[in-house]
Write the structure tokens for this entry.
Amino acid sequence: MTSGIILAVFILGLIIRIPVFFALMISSSVYILAFSDIPITLLAHRMCGSLQRFPLLALPLYILAAEIMNKGKISQEIFDFARDLLGHISGSLGHVNVVVSMIFAGMSGSITADTAGLGAVEIPAMTKAGFSKEFSVGVTGASSLIGPIVPPSIHMILYGMIAEQSVGRLFLGGAIPGVLMGITLMIMVYLIAKRKKFPKYDHMEPFSKIWSSFKKAFPATLTPIIILGGIVTGIFTPTEAAVVAVLYAYFLSFIVYKTLKIREIFPMFVDVACVTAVILAIMGAASVFGWVVTLENIPNHIRDLVMAFTDEKWVVLVLLIFTFLIAGCFFDIGAILLVLTPMVVPLVQAYGIDLIHFGVLEVLVLCIGFLTPPFGVGIFILAKIADMPIHRVILSMVPFYIPLFIVVVLIAVFPNFVLFLPNIVMK
């Protein structure tokens, strides 16, 4: 009964559009005041204590690195190189869009940064080259989902802290699924481009031009290699890698490409501070809510309920995939990770599902929800960038859900797509 009231207050708060932070704190406060003898002051203690973790330092640093990359227009050099290399293939700039997202994803680790930052470059370039705006928006939206999967990833850091799993293993676990997403999206781009006879270059660019653009883009493409290579070799931890990412982003923007001005630094710090404050506030409130949920033994109740329903692992995975997909259509990815993950971890463990495998799968499904109606945040970002009505953005995404769900099925059925690299590199 008490459990139902707590969850009902929280869900009601979300339905009436109360910010997630307040919905979490109100539902937790209702429990403390009405159903327990716990002092209300413990909520503040619990909230502040949950944020005193060293790995959390990585969050603002990766956000700052993504902001520097966007403001420094580093993606433009990568885009030019990919265009010269792939422009002669059917779908040309569609493939370029996907490849740039795969490379840039390893620098920003943020789905919002990829959607907004790259979309501002890619959509105008594709429409100018003769591609329909719907196709350009669909490719850009779908390819932006690679960001949280390919390392480094802000969402993987959040999941790793909640599920108490190695962030390094999660980063490695996302590498192969990220590549699979890129390949399946490029196949879809090729098929659509062939059918609709979208433009392409008549011939491959001469080697000299490809080499020239490669040299310009090469320093930027080194970023994910430096970050992941340093983590794998033990030179630095995932948290320390965030510092390296920021320093290298500054180096690229100020020294190599000279696209960033000193006067732009302070506004960037302010923006990053605001974004970080929101994330940390939600994390603190989610920790309080998770503590209340644990006191009421809700995770174990969920586990027992599902285990009474089925003993098949695949059934549980399907249920969880649909649960997170639906949640991702309505709410912020970070908030869902923080609130729902602690509830389902006991269930996942009870069925012998590897938590690294499940973490990558959960993040991918939530990201698809980010671009799924009715309230997927990515849909509104794309609509603003492309100056398109929401319903046209949704229709443009429809063909690209197919390759994304193919990858979901592949990594759900074959866990080694996720676990192969972590098991080989970080035994």
Notes: Residues 265-295 form the longest helix (31 residues). The chain has a mean pLDDT of 80.
